[in-house]
Amino acid sequence: MIYTTFMDSAYVQSLPFLIDGLKITVMITVIGLFFGMIIGSLAGLGKLSKNKFIRGFWSVYVEVVRGTPILAQALFLYYGVSEDLIGLNITSFTAGVIAIAVNAGAYIAEIVRGAVYSIDKGQHEAGRSMGLTENQTMRYIIWPQAFKRMIPPLGNQFIISLKDTSVFSVIVVHDVVFMAKEYYNTTFEIFETLVMVCLLYLCITVPTALYLNRLERKLDV
């Protein structure tokens, strides 16, 4: 009887809807972070550039993005840029991916800048003394060492971006939060549904955090 009651409860009945939403949540996070890594790498290295224009451009980008909430950025991209500026109705999914890429890119930029800056200057000098150009020194000597140091904070950024997607329900992204709202608006079982949402997030964030802690200890050794 208890088993039957539990199986008929919102804890179980909401799962198919929530898992569909979770797939969208993970897809937006992974795709967004892929492009965010590209943007962040360019921005991080740009902030280390000797060219004042390049350094200034990426510095402004980082400060503006880090100084504004991701919800405002998503609304700006979905309603402001797509409709008012370029006159195209981009999908909410695309707007979510762009928002994650732009937002995460600003934070990844600081991760990249800090990791590259942390490499001893002697490594730069060693590369140049071997006859390597500045770009070759960065590519073959500095970047591999810096990237190793970036891995733990990049993992943390994945967790942050995953949770940030929860605000995209306001632009009608069919993520796990949006699907939860759709479900409890019909069944009125709010508490049970939101408990399952939290558990689904924890099923991703907790194992990821444990793995990152283990990886960080291994890298320190």
TrEMBL record:
Start and end residues of each ABC transmembrane type-1 domain: 22-212
Q: Which residues cross the membrane?
A: 24-45, 57-79, 85-109, 158-178, 190-212
Q: Where in the cell is it found?
A: Cell membrane
Which UniProt keywords are present, listed alphabetically? Answer: Amino-acid transport, Cell membrane, Membrane, Transmembrane, Transmembrane helix, Transport
Membrane topology term? Multi-pass membrane protein
Q: Which SUPFAM superfamilies did the record assign?
A: MetI-like
> Where is it chiefly localized?
membrane
**Which NCBIfam families is this protein grouped with?**
HEQRo_perm_3TM
Q: List the PANTHER family.
A: GLUTAMINE TRANSPORT SYSTEM PERMEASE PROTEIN GLNP, MEMBRANE COMPONENT OF AMINO ACID ABC TRANSPORTER
Q: Which family does it belong to?
A: Belongs to the binding-protein-dependent transport system permease family. HisMQ subfamily.
The molecule here is called: Amino acid ABC transporter permease
Query: What organism does the record attribute this protein to?
Result: Virgibacillus byunsanensis
